[in-house]
Design brief:
Blueprint (H helix, E strand, L loop, with lengths): L6 E6 L4 E7 L1 E6 L2 E5 L6 E5 L2 E7 L2 E7 L2 E6 L2 E5 L3 E3 L5 H17 L6 H17 L4
Helix pairs in contact: 1-2
Bound molecules: adenosine-5'-triphosphate.
Adenosine-5'-triphosphate binds next to helix 1 and helix 2.
Length: 136
């Protein structure tokens, strides 16, 4: 059987290396839509939105929640650089639920002093973390 082609995926934040493995296929939450990347993909740089990095390896899929950032693809290496990123096993579900409720309350209060964009971004991050863990 032909040797399967793999590519390196690295997901890093200012705090830690969240993921570093040779993988088969990854889907990135590109700012302009999902980006599926196989080994030997053409070089690219893309902004990412808050969303899920889906890693496919030998039949299983791992989800990594990222809060924006950038991806670079080059020489069968995919690098994701994000302010915050958590593998599904790192996510504290109660914390994400609490963040979701706080953001929803801020948005519902219609207080002219609240920063709507910030509250919406916080809600997106919380929902994304819940989605990564199958809670939303
Ligand atoms: P919170 O209001 O709960 O702090 P947040 O969306 O404002 O949520 P971020 O600013 O995106 O948090 O992240 C700050 C740090 O906390 C990052 O290192 C991020 O990975 C981590 N983090 C945030 N929420 C969670 C969570 N639910 N589980 C695990 N780590 C989390």
């Amino acid at each position: 059987m032909a040797e399967e082609k793999l590519q390196r995926l690295e997901v890093v934040t200012p705090q830690e290396r969240v993921y570093s493995q040779d993988i088969r296929f990854v889907v990135l939450p590109g700012a302009e839509g999902e980006l599926g990347v196989l080994p030997e993909h053409a070089p690219l740089v893309s902004a990412l939105k808050t969303g899920l990095v889906r890693v496919q390896n030998e039949g299983n899929t791992l989800k990594i929640a990222v809060s924006g950032g950038f991806a670079e693809v080059r020489n069968s290496k995919v690098t994701v650089l994000a302010n915050a990123a958590e593998r599904e096993d790192q996510i504290n579900i109660e914390r994400a639920k609490a963040a979701k409720e706080r953001a929803e309350q801020r948005l519902a209060a219609k207080d002219p002093d609240i920063d709507l964009i910030r509250a919406e971004a916080a809600l997106k991050r919380a929902l994304n973390r819940l989605r990564a863990t199958g809670q939303a």
